[in-house]
Amino acid sequence: MFKTVTFAATHFSVVFAVAYALTGSFGIASTLALAEPMVNTVAYHFHEKIWDRVRGQERRQGVDAGHARLCGHGH
């Protein structure tokens, strides 16, 4: 758990520093540093859903190819 907390603090610090360097605004940098992890968490959820579909398609294609070879239809 400590590693997770230190990673979150590091992530917040990096986002804050980059946003502050780009804008010069403490308020904007703080807002971005808080909002970015929330948005990124939602994006990650959908990223995982897409990859689950890709993996499922790969598995089905692998099964179909294996079946074709067993039945003498493969090359």
Oligomer kind:
single chain
Total beta-strand segments: 0
Largest sheet: none
The outline comes out as elongated
Q: Number of DSSP helices?
A: 2
Computed structural class: mainly alpha
Query: Radius of gyration over alpha carbons?
Result: 22 Å
Residue ranges: pLDDT <50 for 5 or more in a row? none
What's the end-to-end separation, in Å? 52 Å
Mean pLDDT: 87
The total number of structural domains is 1
Query: Can you write the helix and strand succession as a string?
Result: HH
Beta content: under 5%
**Helix content class:** over 70%
Question: Which key terms come to mind for this protein?
Answer:
0% strand, mainly alpha, 75 residues, 89% helix, elongated
Describe the structure.
The chain has 75 residues and is mainly α. It has one domain (2-70). It contains 2 helices and no strands. The chain has helices at residues 2-23, 26-70. The termini are far apart. InterPro entries: DUF2061_membrane. This is DUF2061 domain-containing protein. Residues 1-52 form the DUF2061 domain.
How would you briefly describe this protein structure?
The chain is mostly helical.
Helix-strand layout with pairing:
Blueprint lengths: L1 H22 L2 H45 L5
Helix pairs in contact: 1-2
